[in-house]
Design brief:
12 strands; alpha/beta; globular; two-stranded antiparallel sheet; TIM Barrel; 8-stranded parallel β-sheet
Length: about 325
């Protein structure tokens, strides 16, 4: 069954009548969870089941659950360290794999398809919004650790999403609240930021999320709305065949494109397979009601590969020796 191109959020810990109405809309293909959607393990299990049972069509359920500052579910889940802590460990490669597996295992055990991970941005020491969400400053070390992290994710049945292409780490501004402009040359970006994406694409990276950053020496649009970045660089130069997710269209970094309808149409036209519209219900309704979105069969087929693969349920996971050993190993880094 095909997967539609819009990923929405919901307001609370259970579905409202409006949530259900939006879920069954033909353009809705995904739901992303936030901290406000989590109260307990039992509540989350019921919420996921409610979403699955609301419609017969395939719905991707996602979350940002990286660890450190960005971990949506806390009580009942392992406290995951920020991935920057991995590079400083003498068993960095092994623990990167374990971190990826543990994160993915606990999410897949809840029947959530994937977490938007890992971050492939370089930590240049200037971006607070990236910071310790990045593995490191060294693009080759990022590539190595991210490779192992993704192997761990895949072993737990989860597809990977590298973000934020081509790199958010060199700008001070936070694209949630401002419109960042990266003034570096193409050569500088290719010698640094592009390296982890290139390495991971060559190893079969499943999805990519572009940054709401304008790279002014290269194009006048943020990467997520730029056919140059998404079609010419990603698809043609780098040979990427996976899914392209937009970053949240309600972020300030997207506002330069226009209103919500214009943002949605521009992102899809530029090459995004699925657009995220979060934390603004009226904006989401505007897009669903007014945007002219031509969703290709190719995009829908790509999106089906983001569905979670079969994995054990939570009860079985907590009884598994590997889970206990992984928690012990990773908790030591917190």
């Amino acid at each position: 069954m095909s997967i539609a191109p819009i990923m929405l959020d919901i307001d609370g810990i259970e579905l409202s009548a409006e949530d259900r109405e939006l879920l069954i809309h033909p353009l809705t293909g995904g739901v992303i969870f936030f901290t406000r959607n989590y109260e307990s393990i039992e509540q989350l299990e019921q919420l996921v089941a409610s979403i699955r049972n609301t419609t017969d069509k395939d719905i991707l359920i996602a979350v940002d659950h990286e660890g450190g500052r960005v971990q949506r579910f806390r009580t009942g889940f392992t406290e995951l360290p920020a991935i920057a802590s991995l590079a400083n460990d003498n068993k960095a490669v092994e623990k990167s794999f374990t971190h990826g597996w543990l994160m993915a295992a606990e999410i897949r055990a809840m029947d959530i398809d994937f977490s938007f991970a890992p971050v492939l941005d370089i930590n240049f020491g200037v971006s607070e919004v990236i910071g310790d969400r990045s593995f490191n400053r060294d693009p080759e070390l990022i590539s190595l650790l991210a490779t192992e992290y993704i192997k761990g994710m895949r072993e737990a049945g989860m597809a990977s999403t590298g973000k934020h292409f081509p790199g958010h780490g060199a700008v001070v501004e936070d694209s949630h609240h401002e419109i960042p402009i990266d003034k570096r040359s193409k050569e500088s970006i290719w010698q640094n930021d592009i390296i982890p994406f290139t390495r991971l694409i060559n190893q079969g990276l499943d999805a990519i999320m572009p940054a709401h950053v304008i790279y002014q020496e290269i194009d006048d649009k943020p990467a997520g709305f730029s056919s140059y970045w998404l079609q010419h660089v990603l698809r043609q130069e780098l040979g990427f065949q996976g899914v392209i997710f937009s970053d949240d269209l309600t972020m300030q970094g997207a506002s330069i494109i226009g209103g919500y309808t214009e943002r949605a149409e521009a992102a899809i036209t530029a090459g995004c397979d699925m657009i995220l519209v979060c934390n603004d219900r009226q904006g989401a309704i505007e897009i669903i009601d007014k945007a002219h979105i031509n969703h290709s069969k190719e995009s829908s087929l790509r999106l089906t590969k983001m569905k979670g693969q079969p994995f054990m349920n939570r009860s079985a996971l907590l009884d598994h020796k590997r889970w206990a050993e992984s928690v012990h190993q990773i908790s030591a880094l917190v």
